[in-house]
Design goal:
By secondary structure, the chain is an alpha+beta fold. The chain contains 5 helices and 4 strands; from the N terminus they run αααβαββαβ. The protein has a 4-stranded antiparallel beta sheet. Helix 2 packs across helix 3. The chain is elongated, with a radius of gyration of 20 Å.
Length: about 160
């Protein structure tokens, strides 16, 4: 991926797109005070450099009947094969939106969504705990969402 230096216009493009990734190039160029051609050129550079990874629609979990949100802390066997096997398996579990390898007492943190407690129980008992190498799983359920954003902070990139 090509390396690029971000200027204030690039950062503005990134901020605006994080708020609304469906803007047309003309709408985007108006918001960042740039004509459409240079705006499109900069956008393509940001995509080619891997700064913009992809575009997505963010769904409401409740609207698609996935009202039970859980964070699951997973401890696994310390063997390299167990870690590799787990990392591969988690890619196939659609309930799991994010999986993070951690330092500390827990090896992995899963962020997952379920229709209800029965679906959660089935996943934990039939999928997660039955996976070779998984030693333990502890769960926490979301009671109330306080903040949820996909926008990364960019202020540290502004150089005066």
């Amino acid at each position: 991926m090509p390396q690029i230096t971000l200027d204030k216009t690039d950062l503005k493009i990134l901020q605006v797109l994080q708020e609304n990734g469906r803007l047309t190039n003309v709408e985007l160029s108006e918001r960042v005070a740039l004509s459409p051609s240079p705006c499109l050129r900069r956008l393509k550079q940001l995509e080619d450099a891997g700064i913009i990874r992809r575009y997505a629609a963010l769904l409401s979990p409740v609207a698609v009947e996935l009202g039970l949100q859980a964070f699951i802390r997973v401890s696994i066997d310390k063997a390299a094969a167990a870690r590799e096997g787990f990392s591969e398996a988690v890619q196939e579990w659609p309930e799991v939106l994010s999986c993070f390898a951690l330092t500390g007492e827990t090896d992995y943190l899963l962020h997952a969504f379920f229709t209800d407690m029965n679906a959660f129980s089935h996943f934990v008992l039939e999928t997660l705990l039955s996976h070779p190498g998984v030693q333990d799983a502890k769960s926490s359920f979301v009671l109330k969402e306080i903040k949820n954003t996909t926008a990364l902070p960019l202020s540290h990139l502004y150089r005066e």
